[in-house]
Write a structure and sequence with these properties.
6-stranded antiparallel β-sheet; globular; 131 residues
Length: 131
């Protein structure tokens, strides 16, 4: 009985320690401050990553484990996923309180090209760039 309590408390401590991934306000400000030209460059880069996909497999880059591509290193990204004409770059936060840049309309003629910012904690999203 005591061992199970100790393990429960240790697990709780590790869980709570892993939740210290805040800083979302700074990340939101930084993403909102990106110039339209920079957003257009980001879209072109993500579009080039999407074009390299083989057999429609997604491209997933986890940056603690892989080097961050130079073209997005200024964003200090945590994760990149590109699949099926869509992509996102995880910038900050964890669980439901994430700050992501979402890219839509990749390599899809006729679809609107768009970058939106998710505001985390179910606060919705806002469009930063579209063409």
């Amino acid at each position: 009985m005591k061992l199970s309590r100790v393990l429960f408390h240790l697990g709780l401590v590790f869980l709570l320690a892993g939740c210290g991934c805040g800083g979302n306000e700074d990340a939101i400000r930084a993403m909102r401050a990106l110039p339209k030209e920079r957003l257009a460059e980001l879209y072109q880069y993500i579009q080039s990553v999407d074009a390299r996909r083989k057999n429609l497999d997604p491209i997933i880059m986890d940056f603690p484990r892989n080097p961050v591509p130079r073209k997005i290193s200024d964003l200090n990204p945590k994760f990149l996923r590109v699949w099926d004409g869509k992509a996102y770059i995880h910038i900050s936060g964890c669980f439901d309180d994430k700050i992501d840049l979402h890219f839509q309309g990749l390599n899809s003629p006729g679809r609107k090209k768009k970058i939106s910012l998710t505001l985390g904690d179910h606060k919705g999203s806002e469009t930063l760039w579209e063409q």
